[in-house]
Amino acid sequence: MGFSLFLQILLLLFSQCKAQWCYQSQYCDDTCKDPSRWATQFPSCGGLRQSPINIVTSKVHINSALPPFNFIGHTDIINITVENKGHSAHFALPQSVRLTGGALPGTYRAAQFHFHWGGNGRPGSEHTIDGERFPMELHIVHIKEPYGSLAEAEHDMAGIALLAFLFEETTEDHPHLDNVIAALGQVQNNGSSTVIPNFRLSDVIPVAKDLHSYYRYVGSMTTPGCEQAVAWTVFHRTLSISSGQLNAIVKQCRFWTGLPMTDIFRPTQPLDGRVVYCSKSGTAQKSVIHLRFSVFSVILATMTLMH
């Protein structure tokens, strides 16, 4: 490689770093903002309602106003597009996939789902439970109707509903993750995309009757600009993944910098006075209070006081 070409590549990488945010694992130039410095470029990332968090089970508040969810379109057979976004891979979902219930104030349309993982045997979930980080985490992003985009929804305190599932390592393969892993292998580079045919979201997540137990808190998106408009639901029910599948999934994609896409999770953020609620069906959790009114009335009032 000629020196001039080498210099051009370095200058291109430098200019990208100035305009981009990074995960710590990317080892980008000093001008690229890792999670500890996101707030210098994206002010909302320094707010008081940031995600993810560490959930301390002895301090959650059991709330009988957290009912089950209604999943719409989760069993439909669909074709979904997968795209490498440079920091993670997004699996686009059609608007026919919807969500109601769960004390959410309205109907929410699915937008996409994505995963957060570690690398080389390191755990990579974003949320932690009593300080424990899990091997991987799935996020399903929903937008409140009638908003047409995340940009519109972020101006509503509950404009975005995010469902989070933590993975636990098992001896047996998850029966439906191999097609997901294969798709990731086809979108190795930033901007590349592929299609998964005949996909059903219910093949990846449990049926609704097994998802009555969950944590709820108000927070933010976990990537810049860290919009503080998210009603978070972290389910007690974990998903399975074998060590072989976990090792495979972290080797498929590359960051926009060309480096392996590993350790794609934001560190946990301070709770800053927020309350983490637990649905009544999570009876194994320690109760400190039983509320008689809607959890969202409490949540929105708390958020108002924080402004």
Please name the fourth-level CATH homologous superfamily.
Alpha carbonic anhydrase
The largest sheet, given as strand count, sense and whether it forms a barrel, is: 13 strands, mixed
DSSP summary: helix tally = 6
Helix/sheet category: alpha+beta
**Whole-number radius of gyration?**
19 Å
Question: Please, what is the average pLDDT?
Answer: 87
Runs in which pLDDT lies below 50 for 5 or more consecutive residues are 5-18, 282-307
What would you call the shape?
Answer: globular
Distance between the termini: 55 Å
Domains (count):
1
* CATH fold name: Carbonic Anhydrase II
Can you identify the CATH class?
A: Alpha Beta
What CATH architecture do you see? Roll
Order of helices and strands: HHEEEEEEEEEEHEHEEEEHEH
Written description of the protein model:
The chain is an alpha+beta fold and about 300 residues long. The chain has a single domain, classed as Roll (Carbonic Anhydrase II). About 15% of the residues lie in helices and about 25% in strands. It is built from six helices and 16 strands. Strands 2, 3, 4, 5, 6, 7, 10, 11, 12, 13, 14, 15 and 16 form a 13-stranded mixed beta sheet that branches. A three-stranded mixed beta sheet has the order 1-8-9, with no helix packed on it. Strand 6 (about 100) and strand 7 (about 110-115) form a beta hairpin. It is globular. Residues about 5-20 and about 280-305 have low confidence and may be disordered.
